[in-house]
Amino acid sequence: MNSGRQIETELLYDHIVQNVGQQLNALDNDIPSDTDFIPFYDLHYGNLASFQIRSHFHRQFVKESALSCFDQKDKEKLLQHCRLLTEILICSHISQHQQVGLPLYVEMQADWIYDKEFVAYLTPLLTSHRQAGTIFFNIPLFSEMNFPHFSDAFRQQSFLRKDHCMFLWNYHLNEQSHLPFYRQFQSWLSIPLAVAHIDTPEALEFVRHQKITCGAGSSLHAPVKHFHQAKSYPVKAVESNYAPPAMLSSTITAGQILKTAPTVSGGSHGFRIKEIFDKEPFLEGIVVLDASRKPTGLIMREQFYRHLSRQYGYEIFMSRPIHLIMVNNPLVVHDRTPISEVGELAMRRPKERLYDYVIIESKDQFAGVVSIRELLIQISEMNVSIAKYSSPLTGLPGNKLINEELLKALSSEFSSVLYFDLDYFKAYNDLYGFEKGDQVIRLLAQIIQKNLLLNSEENAFLGHVGGDDFVVILNHHNAESFCQQIIQEFDAAVRSHYHQKDLLQGYLLSVNRKGEKEFTPLVSVSIAVLPVKKNQYQSLELLTEAAALGKKMAKAISGSSYYILTSPPGMTKERG
Prior knowledge:
By secondary structure, this protein is an alpha/beta fold. The protein has 17 helices and 21 strands. Strand 12, helix 10 (339-347) and strand 13 (358-362) form a beta-alpha-beta unit. It is globular and about 90 Å long. The model is unreliable at 236-250 (pLDDT under 50).
């Protein structure tokens, strides 16, 4: 971009900031009329999760003459930049003037993060005006997305925090086959994935089947002009028998740590609220319910007394209905939601709402609340427990948790237990060193994790026994294609961990303690597959004996392989 256009660009952005800011100040508590809010829902339980702001307010401030020195493509990009900046300012305005208990998101194109003009001219303005929890990265079509470039740019940038971002995938029938890759990509960066344009029941069912928890579209709710218009939970279909996958036995749900809290109706007056707070000096908040005992609002002590302390606040609010100052759309979660997920949702709220209660529902009615203090204590204790019994190399559950999950598998109707072991790993480790050896172990763990995700293996468990041994538990007996995928990917990926000389000769050459040359094949993976039926194995000892036999049979096959032990040793013929 030449210097003239640089100046024009900076002037345009400054013009937007100044004029939009002035207009918003003039509106006071109101919102520009050409602004909509798209409700996003928890697709498992139907609760509101967040809102996306969509506004055309910027158009009245961008004159065609200001864009005369830009070509059509640059004009469109600049208008989108102005739209983003305007929505950021509106988001900030709402956070200052309205009581909204859920995150407010704006949308930016994913490829903007490595756009030089965006980084140079717009990120400083975003940094100075952005509120917490406000960025949706809109993922373009699969063929147009430069995933490596985005990953590098996102890790290097400093104006957006990872925990304040989400990926936004626009549902499209022709893009369904790429969704597993998008999920793997967002998993690598630890950024949640939401889905927009869920406009048919079929689309909703597909997205929910993919275990995506956040979405929006006309089959859920149309855009609204005011937050209170989206307070209901519109889709009964999402209230399925879904149970969160328990990857660890130490998983704790919101229902296990909730406590009771006083409740009032939206018509209660300020005098009633003050009376409750006066009687309970350590009470942090009060929940507002409708006639069917659904949560509609929240009144936190600090917020209530802040309103009363304003000029004429006591006279204005004490005799008026509490819905005038309550927090609309507070964070509501199902009692079966894992506390780790509750913590993520709570931390994405606007910063002035971070310490509000999280409201818990059970069977579509109010059940209790969780304070942020209690939530953080429980998450911290759970993480300590997980770390205590997890592998420091891979972060996966270790032997204690593995044994607990294996005992569950033995008593389940159907499951498959897979034991993974690397062949000829010791020779590789001795020749290439422990650091390279650890990389190969982590490579196998990552490939297993990725395929569990891509295959949507419900309630699957992956544990690290130690060294180069892993255990996977599936809730079905169809493990062959899964093993084939692992073997194919591992054999291809492990080649990058060898020197070219070793790859060309196809083996490792080393000298043993006697001074003799030894030729060792390249590292491969052996998998023992044990289909397990209820009470088929009477103890863990019998299961591990069978696993040892299965691994022995798999290792007898040249190269990476798997062996299926159809029944306990000595009972019937096995198959490979």
